[in-house]
Amino acid sequence: MKMFDAEVELGDEVVIGGLSVFPLTGVRQAGPAYLTGPEAFEAGMIQESELDPPEVPSLAIFNLAQVPVLLVEGEMLVGGDQNRTMNVTVLCPPLVRTVVPVSCVEAGRWGKRRIVSASSKHAPGSLRAAKTAKLEPRSHDVSSRRSDQGLIWGEVQRQSMAHDVFSETSALDDVQEEIEDRLAPELEKIRTVPGQIGVICTVGEQVIGLDLFDQPSTLERYLRSIVAGHALDAPSPSSSGDPIRAIEHFLAQIDETGRETGRGVGLGEEVLLRGEVAGIGLVYESLLVHLAAFPTPDELADAG
What we know:
This protein is of the alpha+beta class. The protein is 27% helix and 35% strand. The longest helix has 16 residues, at 172-187.
């Protein structure tokens, strides 16, 4: 199967609750050197802070490393004046401060500032899809890729109610902690396979999300958190079905969907997919570093 000029192959299904997880393998291309967000946090090579004055849809990232740092769409950042999730994928240049666009996923806290850290979690696919489909048009300020914040808070509240998890500050992180604890034995089944550069998740015969990276080592850093995020949308076994045809159709839709391109927030060029697929990607040095893609929320509703 071909997508974004890359040949990918679909691997064997792994079932987590009601979620089917399929690896995507491909040929690793020689790309740029960078640290992933988790690696940078572990090494103390990243400092995050609120702006002055603070703004809900923005965080400041200072990269202390000699190489770029990759922060991917949907990645959760816990702390500051409230927890956030990345709106787009950003390759932060070395040794400089970058202001990145984020969405709040903790409506009940503003203040009582905490140190910002990576949470080792990804937002659920339903929230990521809604956020990506509603990103504001690009302006002269590339860091202003704002989401529909009210819609995001509504998605967090829906997840909280769906899983019967109370959070004092309406924090998505609290819901995720509860569900990941429940699914921990099943999540242990998630392992990368040789040559894996992506993952696509389905519920029944419906695709709910895809992430594709430039190299297996990056996918390995994010695989569990991406799958655990999708698992919030499918905690219970669903009706069986054969999703292969839907996956093939979705991959074809990605290539057929209209693309908007422009300067990225940090390094590289941002690619936004608009149409039957809602997607956000980053190209750097002529290579696709990351792509996140989802059926648009309307498509998901129609399929249901």
